């Protein structure tokens, strides 16, 4: 009976069941049979329908949510001249997280990433990177994400997707863009929308997409908000943030949509205007009270601005609306962990486990929480599970590193030593492990080894204050005040409020000033 | 420093004269020195940029022969932390005027700052030949000898320095030497003199106060710490020490208000959180205590005293497994120094471990721990009593008897030496045990009929044994407090800087790699 089914209906059904490849194949067959509709304006334009369906299927195959994924390439970060203020006031910029320490945890309690932000509970494309000050810093892969960073975003992810689409249709592309008469298609709004999405997502030809969108919006006499949003997306992709902002704003005037708010906020974040983005989100919340995506956006911005307490509030709000929100649970959990409440954190992580998250990171965190909440029976089994679930060597290294902490916690320095060594075996660039090994060596009295380890650690991770400070104190003890001073200054740069560093620098300055 | 600068000025003409004969062209001479006043003015105003400009000009004019300009340039380099460069410049100065002791002193000082102590002593000795009566040379020689671990020579030099000119720094160094040698009394003598000499130096006052605290002379300690606080109300060492003293006297609220001041200034200080935790413990707010102590432990994972206190709090809360973990960690981190209070602490530690193990029903290890405690213990009858109870409950009456007798010996000793009041609960317990032991032994020979009664006894003692724990820990409470107090004593006694190296062990931050994969994140949103 299936063979008797109308092919278009079958293709449609495939599409609904997200079997895009099958759907596209079927549509290709149909289009091969009758490439064009016979009459100029038929009652049932079957071929046209098949064409649209194929375009949509191909688009869906490579579709990526524009709102969420935003990985900045090196070029965008270094050559970023879109920020309004080069020297922003404290609390108004994402660039200088150090300046807005309102409610942020101290680096002595919560480790920080390379960008100077407290380590986050949930890895997302933009949190790890921040905006580096120097080229060197930009090239260095941040600790929380070991994947190589694309040189620019347009040559990274998007190009890969483009080539992927080439492979799926061996006899050339489905639509030959250069031969497309955009004006003609712009006259047909329904067709144009599908075509636009195909060009934008599948072909990744932003310029042509922009042309089509411009023609279409003209055709609709600037009354269709959808086209405005699409034009905004194109501008955003091209890096023309101000133009994108205009389009999104006018789209919002016509029709308020959650998506549009999110896109506009994204523009503001790219312009380094977090406060404006926050206001926008709050406006959006007035229209769409309790919208999770908006709440989550606010929470993320607060987190990037080091305002952890506000971020947690909003994450809690998110959980009220959607109690299976992984990101919110993970962030609140890690926040509790770093504010001396491992028991509470444990509950959040257990919730994640119940929800079916089953990976190395979660078990690692469970193990740590168990240890600090004194549930000793579960600690080691959790870590064992984490080790068995680890997907790459970096994860294994992190688990061993944390096991080293557990070993220190139970007072077994030999075990700790071995754990940190294992962490280094798995990941030779684990600066924290180097530092901790150095501390252990110091305790054994092996000063020279400790110094060497500390130097390695500080060259690997200049953003951590601990190796600098440790090196400074060790050198100070040995009487090598010059090096001590240099290291202490680095430590102060990494963590300006560290009292011990300040004491040390004061002491050294006295030494230098004394005649 | 100002004095020193003046000295430089007066010394200056001399060196200019010494330059004079060597220069062939007489008319150039006045140019050489003409801007010295300007350099000096800029220097003492700390206007280093302008100063450098003038120096550069001057050096260009004179082809690098102006000694004063080079000298000041070197000083500026040193202030900026570029010691190697400054050393080179000072060496040039020394070449320009080899007879000046000041130049040599500066060269030596640079070497000292670079950590080349041996070379520094040589240069200082040379300088000393040029200028016999300079306290600075003696002082610095002494400091170099300290670094070279030649304490006798260091002492001689420092005493020389004191003869020539009394100075706070010299006193402090001398005190440090005595502390390194472990001679508290002499150190106190030195610090006393120092305080007489400069009564407003808060560092001296605090150190002296801490030393008194270490010796248990609370009155004087408090006096000095109080003085230090009047001169500098935010001195964090002094506040911490004063707070811990209040803690020992049970003034927890006052101590907490003191700590509040410190917490603003030094939020990451492990001893501070330790003391706050023990304050809460004293006020019987156990959850707060544990959370504070845990933070302290997080900041300084190698500190055995914090672990000890954590173990104690958990013991009081009857969470014996946790207590055991903390205590055993404390034992493994405890330094093996044979000082008196260390020994006391070690005894207490193994004692607590034993108590924890008893409650965990691990009698085998509990006995080992008790044996260790008894071995270390010199004067605490409580240890023997508990050991005896354990042995008795295990049915080893002979061992129990031996411990009981040991305990009686200690009690008698204590009664002789001091009029100490014994805890009534402990006395009662001891009497019960004594009775049980004697009755039990008598039973073996006389009437086995009484067996049920003795059994009842044993049950009662075992109940009391579990009763014992609160008592044991009550006793321990005092000990913990003193350890909290001892906490500050120790470090600053040994020397402020050496203490500060401990906190760096705080880098041990667990960094939970809390991350869900980014791909998952996008999936998450899309579903919405």
TrEMBL record, chain A:
Pfam families listed in its UniProt record:
TPR_16 (PF13432), TPR_19 (PF14559)
Return the InterPro entries for the record. BBS8 (IPR028796), TPR-like_helical_dom_sf (IPR011990), TPR_rpt (IPR019734)
GO biological process, alphabetically ordered: anatomical structure morphogenesis; non-motile cilium assembly; protein transport; sensory perception
TPR repeat segments run: 360-393, 431-464
Its annotated compartments are:
Cell projection, Cilium membrane; Cytoplasm, Cytoskeleton, Microtubule organizing center, Centrosome, Centriolar satellite
Gene3D superfamilies in the record: Tetratricopeptide repeat domain
GO CC terms: BBSome; centriolar satellite; ciliary basal body; ciliary membrane; non-motile cilium
Glycosyltransferase recorded as keyword:
no
Q: Which SUPFAM superfamilies match?
A: TPR-like
- Quote the PROSITE patterns the UniProt record gives: TPR
Q: Keywords of this protein's UniProt record, alphabetized?
A: Cell membrane, Cell projection, Cilium, Cilium biogenesis/degradation, Cytoplasm, Cytoskeleton, Membrane, Protein transport, Repeat, TPR repeat, Transport
What this chain does, per the entry, is described as: The BBSome complex is thought to function as a coat complex required for sorting of specific membrane proteins to the primary cilia. The BBSome complex is required for ciliogenesis but is dispensable for centriolar satellite function. This ciliogenic function is mediated in part by the Rab8 GDP/GTP exchange factor, which localizes to the basal body and contacts the BBSome. Rab8(GTP) enters the primary cilium and promotes extension of the ciliary membrane.
Task: Fill in the subunit field for this protein.
Answer: Part of BBSome complex, that contains BBS1, BBS2, BBS4, BBS5, BBS7, BBS8/TTC8, BBS9 and BBIP10. Interacts with PCM1. Interacts with CCDC28B. Interacts with PKD1.
Name of this protein: Tetratricopeptide repeat protein 8
**Which species does the entry assign this protein to?**
Delphinapterus leucas (Beluga whale)
Automatic annotation (TrEMBL), chain B:
Chief location: membrane
Q: Which SUPFAM superfamilies match?
A: TPR-like
Q: Where are the TPR repeats?
A: 168-201, 202-235, 304-337
- The yes or no answer to whether the keyword Protein transport is present is yes
**Gene Ontology biological process terms in this record:** cilium assembly; microtubule cytoskeleton organization; protein localization to cilium; protein transport; sensory perception
Query: Which stretches does the entry tag as region Disordered?
Result: 448-471, 490-528
Cellular localisation? Cell projection, Cilium membrane; Cell projection, Cilium, Flagellum; Cytoplasm, Cytoskeleton, Microtubule organizing center, Centrosome, Centriolar satellite
Residue stretches of biased makeup (Polar residues): 457-471
Task: Supply the alphabetized keyword list.
Answer: Cell membrane, Cell projection, Cilium, Cilium biogenesis/degradation, Cytoplasm, Cytoskeleton, Flagellum, Membrane, Protein transport, Repeat, TPR repeat, Transport
Which GO CC terms are listed, alphabetically?
Answer: BBSome; centriolar satellite; ciliary basal body; ciliary membrane; ciliary transition zone; motile cilium; non-motile cilium
| Tetratricopeptide repeat protein 21A/21B second ARM domain span | 65-158
Gene3D superfamilies in the record, alphabetically?
A: Tetratricopeptide repeat domain
Key word Nucleus present in the record? no
PROSITE patterns (alphabetical): TPR, TPR_REGION
Q: Which family does it belong to?
A: Belongs to the BBS4 family.
- This protein is called what? BBSome complex member BBS4
User: Gene encoding this chain?
Assistant: BBS4
């Amino acid at each position: 009976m299936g063979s008797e089914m109308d092919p278009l209906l079958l293709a449609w059904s495939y599409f609904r069941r997200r079997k895009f490849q099958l759907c596209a194949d079927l549509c290709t067959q149909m289009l091969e049979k009758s490439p064009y509709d016979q009459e100029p304006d038929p009652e049932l334009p079957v071929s046209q329908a098949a064409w649209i369906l194929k375009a949509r299927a191909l688009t869906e195959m490579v579709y990526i949510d524009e709102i969420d994924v935003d990985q900045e390439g090196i070029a965008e970060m270094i050559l970023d001249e879109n920020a309004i203020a080069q020297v922003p006031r404290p609390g108004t910029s994402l660039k200088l997280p150090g300046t807005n320490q309102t409610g942020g945890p101290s680096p002595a309690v919560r480790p920080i990433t390379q960008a100077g932000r407290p380590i986050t509970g949930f890895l997302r494309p933009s949190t790890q990177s921040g905006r580096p000050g120097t080229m060197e810093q930009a090239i260095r892969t941040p600790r929380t994400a070991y994947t190589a960073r694309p040189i620019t975003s347009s040559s990274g992810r998007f190009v890969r997707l483009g080539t992927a689409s080439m492979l799926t249709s061996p006899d050339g592309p489905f639509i030959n863009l250069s031969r497309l008469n955009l004006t003609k298609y712009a006259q047909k709004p329904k067709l144009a929308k599908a075509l636009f999405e195909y060009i934008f997502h599948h072909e990744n030809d932003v310029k042509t997409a922009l042309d089509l969108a411009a023609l279409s919006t003209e055709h609709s006499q600037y009354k269709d908000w959808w086209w405005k949003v699409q034009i905004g997306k194109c501008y955003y992709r091209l890096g023309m943030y101000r133009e994108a902002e205009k389009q999104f704003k006018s789209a919002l005037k016509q029709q308020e949509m959650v998506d549009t708010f999110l896109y506009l906020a994204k523009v503001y974040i790219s312009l380094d205007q977090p406060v404006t983005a926050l206001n926008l989100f709050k406006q959006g919340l007035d229209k769409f009270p309790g919208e999770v995506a908006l709440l989550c956006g606010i929470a993320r911005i607060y987190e990037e601005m080091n305002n952890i307490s506000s971020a947690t509030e909003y994450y809690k709000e998110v959980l009220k609306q959607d109690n299976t929100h992984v990101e919110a649970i993970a962030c609140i959990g890690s926040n509790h962990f770093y504010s001396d409440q491992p028991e509470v954190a444990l509950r959040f992580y257990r919730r994640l486990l119940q929800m079916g998250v089953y990976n190395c990171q979660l078990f690692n965190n469970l193990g740590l929480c168990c240890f600090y909440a004194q549930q000793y029976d579960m600690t080691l089994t959790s870590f064992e599970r984490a080790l068995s679930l680890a997907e790459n060597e970096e994860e294994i290294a992190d688990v061993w590193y944390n096991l080293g902490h557990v070993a220190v916690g139970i007072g077994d320095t030999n075990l700790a030593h071995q754990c940190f060594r294992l962490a280094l075996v798995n990941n030779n660039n684990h600066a924290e492990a180097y530092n901790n090994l150095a501390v252990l060596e110091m305790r054994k009295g092996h000063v020279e080894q400790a110094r060497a380890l500390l130097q390695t650690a500080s060259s690997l991770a200049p953003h951590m204050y601990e190796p600098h400070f440790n090196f400074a104190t060790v050198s100070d003890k040995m009487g090598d005040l010059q090096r001590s001073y240099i290291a202490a200054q680095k430590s102060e740069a990494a963590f300006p409020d560290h009292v011990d560093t300040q004491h040390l620098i004061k002491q050294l300055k006295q030494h230098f000033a004394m005649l | 420093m100002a004095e020193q600068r003046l000295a430089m000025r007066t010394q200056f003409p001399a060196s200019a004269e010494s330059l004079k004969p060597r220069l062939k062209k007489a008319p150039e001479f006045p140019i050489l020195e003409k801007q010295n006043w300007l350099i000096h003015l800029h220097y003492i105003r700390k206007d280093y940029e302008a100063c450098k400009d003038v120096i550069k000009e001057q050096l260009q004019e004179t082809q690098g022969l102006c000694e004063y300009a080079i000298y000041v340039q070197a000083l500026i380099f040193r202030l900026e932390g570029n010691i190697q460069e400054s050393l080179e410049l000072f060496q040039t100065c020394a070449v320009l005027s080899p007879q000046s002791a000041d130049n040599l002193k500066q060269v030596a000082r640079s070497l000292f700052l670079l950590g080349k102590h041996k070379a520094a002593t040589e240069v200082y000795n040379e300088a000393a030949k040029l200028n016999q009566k300079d306290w600075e040379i003696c002082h610095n020689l002494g400091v170099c000898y300290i670094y070279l671990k030649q304490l006798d020579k260091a002492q001689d030099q420092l005493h020389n320095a004191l003869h020539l000119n009394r100075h706070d720094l010299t006193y402090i160094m001398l005190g440090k030497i005595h502390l390194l040698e472990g001679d508290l009394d002499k150190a106190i003598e030195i610090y006393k003199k120092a305080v007489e000499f400069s009564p407003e130096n808060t560092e001296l006052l605090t150190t002296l106060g801490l030393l008194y605290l270490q010796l248990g002379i609370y009155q004087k300690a408090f006096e000095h710490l109080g003085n230090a606080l009047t001169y500098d109300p935010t001195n964090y060492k002094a506040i911490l020490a004063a707070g811990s003293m209040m803690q020992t006297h049970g003034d927890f609220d006052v101590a907490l208000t003191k700590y509040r001041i410190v917490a603003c200034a030094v939020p990451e200080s492990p001893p501070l959180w330790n003391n706050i935790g023990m304050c809460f413990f004293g006020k019987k707010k156990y959850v707060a205590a544990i959370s504070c102590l845990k933070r302290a432990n997080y900041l300084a994972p190698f500190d055995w005293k914090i672990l000890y206190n954590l173990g104690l709090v958990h013991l009081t809360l009857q969470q014996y497994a946790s207590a055991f973990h903390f205590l055993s960690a404390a034992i493994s981190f405890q330094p093996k120094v044979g000082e008196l209070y260390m020994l006391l602490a070690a005894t207490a530690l193994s004692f607590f471990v034993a108590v924890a193990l008893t409650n965990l029903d691990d009698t085998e290890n509990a006995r080992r721990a008790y044996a260790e405690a008894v071995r270390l213990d010199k004067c605490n009858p409580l240890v023997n009593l508990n050991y005896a109870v354990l042995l008795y409950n295990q049915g080893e009456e002979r061992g129990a008897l031996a411990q009981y007798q040991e305990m009686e010996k200690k009690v008698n000793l204590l009664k002789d030496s001091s009029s100490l009041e014994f805890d009534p609960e402990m006395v009662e317990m001891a009497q019960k045990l004594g009775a049980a032991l004697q009755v039990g032994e008598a039973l073996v020979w006389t009437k086995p009929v009484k067996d049920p009664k003795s059994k009842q006894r044993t049950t009662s003692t075992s109940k009391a044994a579990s009763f014992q724990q609160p008592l044991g820990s009550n006793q321990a409470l005092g000990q913990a407090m003193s350890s909290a107090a001892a906490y500050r004593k120790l470090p600053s006694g040994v020397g402020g800087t050496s203490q500060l190296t401990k906190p760096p062990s705080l880098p041990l931050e667990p960094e939970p790699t809390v991350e869900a994969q980014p791909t998952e994140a996008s999936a998450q949103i899309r579903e919405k």
